[in-house]
Amino acid sequence: MSFFKKLKDKVSKQTDQATDKFKDGLTKTRDSFTTKVNDLIAKYRKVDEEFFEELEEILISADVGVETVMELIEELEMEVKRRNIQDTEEVKEVISEKLVEIYYGEDDEETVEALNIQKDGLSVILIVGVNGVGKTTTIGKLAYQLKQEGKNVVLAAGDTFRAGAIDQLDVWGERAGVDVIKHNEGSDPAAVIYDGIQAARSRGADVLLCDTAGRLQNKVNLMKELSKVRKVIEREIPEAPHETLLVLDATTGQNAISQAKTFKEATDVSGIVLTKLDGTARGGIVLAIRNEMNIPVKYVGLGEQITDLQPFNAHQFVYGLFGDLMTRVEQEEK
Amino acid sequence: MAFEGLADRLQGTIKKITGKGKVTEADVKEMTREVRLALLEADVNYKVVKDLIKRIKERAVGQEVMESLTPGQQVIKVVKEELTELMGGEQSKIAVANKPPTVIMMVGLQGAGKTTTTGKLANHLRKKFNRNPLLVAADVYRPAAIDQLKTLGEQLEMPVYSKGTDANPVDIANEAIAKAKEEHHDYVLIDTAGRLHIDEDLMGELTQIKEDTSPDEIFLVVDSMTGQDAVTVADSFDEQLDISGVVLTKLDGDTRGGAALSIRAVTGKPIKFAGMGEKLDQLEAFHPDRMASRILGMGDVFSLIEKAETEVDEKKAKEMQSKMRSMSFTFEDFLEQMEQVKSMGPLDELINMMPGANKMKGMKNLQVDDKQLTHIEAIIQSMTKTERVDPSVINASRKKRIAKGSGTSVAQVNRLLKQFEEMKKMMKQMTNQKKGNKGGMNLPFM
After folding, report:
1. Mutating which of B150, B152, B255, B282 best tests the A interface, going by the most A Cβ atoms within 10 A?
2. Which of B50, B227, B370 has its CB closest to that of A251?
3. Which residue of A has its CA nearest to B227?
4. Does A164 touch chain B (CB under 8 A)?
5. Residues B26, B179: Cα–Cα separation, whole Å
6. Predicted confidence (pLDDT) per residue in B18-48, tens digit
7. What is the pLDDT of residues A314-330, one digit of tens each?
8. Pick the CATH number of A18-111+317-333 from 2.30.40.10, 1.20.120.140, 3.40.50.740, 1.20.1260.100
9. What's the Cα-to-Cα distance from A51 to each of A47, A86, A212, A219, rounded to whole Å?
10. Hey, what CATH class is A123-312 in?
11. How far apart are CA B292 and CA B81, in angstroms?
């Protein structure tokens, strides 16, 4: 079975609705990428150095990290040599194959990374990230979804720094119909989170979502503050936080790698939420992060509505990105 | 490190060329490939990079390289000149309407930092030009965006016009201007909601506000960490609204900020200001030439020099130097010097600006903690006048008292005393070596 067919089968087994959401959200991305690759192939009849250079540019334009692109191109060049491919048409499949390989890695079966929520007792989820990526909004959406699943959710307003952040979380708490534990602006975030844990326990909550202030990863003191918050959580519940989610803006370029590295050091990030993927940004940087650090993407934000947070599914993501390209190859194969 | 500066990248190639009599076209090709990678790693748009490289190649293959002493340096120079030219000159002027109030509209994607920038800009207008701005909360979509602007207004003690979340942003803007006229505000800053450039409804709303209020400035606020998409976003906003300038935010992060170059190249609109921190006074005029250095990873030597020049009192610095030389440098002087350094900004920011600092041994991962400075300050402040001038009188019981007074430990006091002695010795060596050095630059921290 061809590679595309396998991928298509996998995707079609999943619920259509979710796939559509992905496809809609990624329309811009998919179109531009597919068009570019097809243009490239039409332009070059022969696979040569210039062809690869242009391919490199296409990948870079999707914000796939420079290092990852270089690795990929090298592998492609080797593969082309090995299979003795001359015609650019034939390279098409190899390109997609290699790209998908990065996402799946060795293990190509388990592509949905579920949140680590305990069956019994309280699960604590810590949300971290730089300023303006959408942490508070993500918490609002996540709270709504967990509530819909029948979970008892409590929010802790740990962003005591930014003006209006506590009010913002309050509004989301109302929308999702969950309680918000808060202190005054300027108070110690670790203390808010501590109170959050106590409140969640006494209410017998299933999930506590902890908001934190946005911070640029090169601010040492602020990163230390975050480690402290994590320690406070650990002290209360030894196996917590059960998830530490790093929220990344899909429009972010190479700096996302630096964000992932530094936040992982400070808080041991367990997963990524990729937000604002409904614009024209490609979010290709998650490829690089996956490739270099092996942190899985768990959710993607595809819009501003409370329901617009989708669990990340690598198959769907890749299908959304390269689906049209694959369909065309299939048709040509026939 | 994920990001290598261009200088590091070029080192290998330069080594090969040094000693050769001539720079071949192949050498230039190899060098421009490194330049290309450095620019791409800095998030400069690939199309912009392509054009640039073409021009650089043309210039570098010609005579300029041949005449230079070190071809590598020459290439960097050509690259920097090209970048600086592309970035244009410094432009941080804000329009003034013939008939007040001057209207400024703030637009951009979600999370770029519009509301914070609005607050900073209002502060800048008042502090620098003695203006009396009215802030307008026209972001009715994001939860608590109005509260955020109101809080900033309170911090600045400036009025904020708002009508809650049920009002139409276009009406809010119109009514705010009427109110500004009534109350004699000379500037009106309209904070609009973040939106995607492809969201037709919301972009239409901005066009409507623009038509109704005919703003004198429309500032596009862009996150400096934006990747390749910066071009699409800026181009789209500019096409629909004809923006008058750009404010680049979060430049206090460790991003190279190639987006700046892309935006400039695509829209031709000036980048006027840079957001350098979360505090309301951390808005600076944008310096295109420095940005060129930053994108290339060459250190921001200009900024450092300028900062030192403006912040350090020239006369005091001279006095300090003669003291250093004569070994009469005391804790009193030390304290004073610390104040001066602190007024220049966060220490790690200063160190980052030094070219090659991230290459120096030990400097790479050096993380200067401003809190440590506070501790040192507290210890010195807990000393008596005599102790500050002559630390040798500090015995065990004095140490205990100082530690207690400063909320530190005797060990910390000891450490500072020891460091101070070593520093004095070091300073003596340093100042003897380079007499006639410009004042203020050889501070013991650096």
Report:
1. B255
2. B227
3. A253
4. yes
5. 66
6. 555 556 677 778 778 888 888 888 899 988 9
7. 766 666 555 555 555 55
8. 1.20.120.140
9. 6, 12, 46, 42
10. alpha beta
11. 9
